[in-house]
Amino acid sequence: MTGNQDAYKNAMNQGHNAAWEQNWDEAAKWYQQALEVIPNDAMALTSLGLALFEQRRFDESLRFYQRAANLYPNDPGPLDKMARIYELQGRTPDAVQTWMTASNLHLNLRDADKAIGYLQQAIALQPENVNARSRLAMILDKLGRKNEAITEYLSVASLLQSAGETAKVNQIIQYLYQSQPDSNELRHALTLLRNKQPLPRPAKTRRSATGPIQPEQPAKLDKAKEAPQTPDPVNEARRSAMAELAAMLFSQAEESPSGQVSRRGISSLTRGTGGLSLEQAEQTRIMLH
Fold this sequence. Notes:
Blueprint: H1 2-20, H2 24-37, H3 42-54, H4 58-71, H5 77-88, H6 92-108, H7 112-125, H8 130-142, H9 146-162, H10 166-179, H11 184-194, H12 233-250, H13 263-269, H14 278-288
């Protein structure tokens, strides 16, 4: 085994040296040798994937990143390059789904900034993806970034409104009115709804050429940011409302191939939520009239 380890380390070192010189063809040959010694090594798989990616051998690169992702399903690293390859190949739905999966993995690792960044990548490709925008709104809300959360919630409301789901728009507005009644953006939305005018369409999401921003000190979804354990009627009501909203937004979401939400998709999205209670419906009517 020691001999195998030495052969593996030598191949990887030679590959890294070639990669440092940007001699990607030579690097790929060495990484391939390393994989022949240890076939399921994560570093060798992703290094070979990168060397092939840099040579624009995207189909081959994708196979090694997919292999790494299957072997190490809790590691979001391979998904980043997979999403970029899908995008370069024009496979937008696959790219969007991969960004969203990577976001979930980063959220599981309690790295909120990267989770947000990957969702923004997905939204940049499919601005009308309700599922991605809903998840982004929920994360921003959880982090206390209320103004950004409101913007995303209202983007979701705009998409639902376009699909004719007025009751669901009212449910989102009801939640926002309970949690952030003084928001100018929310007040503007209420004015539009009272006047039976459409909500603004979602703004385009900016994205960097190198992908999601990776701050040196990413925000964490740690216990310090969670609500205190001492019962608080207001916080409890808000958490309950957020849970109900989450159930509405994430229940069996379906999107059309173009990423736009169809009426059938909206019906699936809202299935099983029970809609607004009589009290909530009455409060919404008061806000809108």
